[in-house]
């Protein structure tokens, strides 16, 4: 979806309020100390998270379906990360079982139809002691924007930004359904975070800061693999 406007989005996400001062601090905070860890950046986009993870001492691999994003991410990471063009609706056949200490999956889960299968694939590549950190649109945000019942589950076609022609297709669904998918894929919720904007946003983007102090736009999770059932 992003390929047509990949360069515009990359410039936008690098320093805007919701990405730079809201989602990235939340996701990287849940990731914790990544020094020396093998991190898989799923749907890596233009490499904004990958670069930060590298700078914090992680070994980073990752992928995105957009060739333009992957080119931008490779350049941003100065060749220090193994980033590939890959459609996450297909298995990660090039990633070995249990090879990642951490999977980062920022603001992309809501684009996929078969989310459980994708999450199961992330569980496969994680070590038993690993974690999946992801963010997604907060269900109350889609409800207040789109109206209708909060419990509606359906894909919605709209623009990523009301001020730009950036068409996307994403799922709206309630928190109950989001959490049920995690359990179905074999994950427990270790931490759930409704992010608060960082103080810098109040100075640079006061209107966005005021809105996000009243209603969260995103929701972030740290998930850990559930222990396999005992053999009988």
UniProtKB/TrEMBL annotation:
Keywords noted in UniProt: Methyltransferase, Transferase
GO MF terms, alphabetically ordered: S-adenosylmethionine-dependent methyltransferase activity
Keyword Transferase: yes
Coiled-coil residue spans: none
Annotated CDD domains: AdoMet_MTases (cd02440)
Keyword Methyltransferase: yes
TM region(s), chain numbering: none
Occurrences of domain Methyltransferase type (ranges): 41-134
Gene3D superfamilies (alphabetical): Vaccinia Virus protein VP39
Pfam families the UniProt entry points to: Methyltransf_11
GO BP, one annotated term: methylation
Family according to the record: Belongs to the methyltransferase superfamily.
Identification of the protein by name: Class I SAM-dependent methyltransferase
Organism: Actinomadura spongiicola
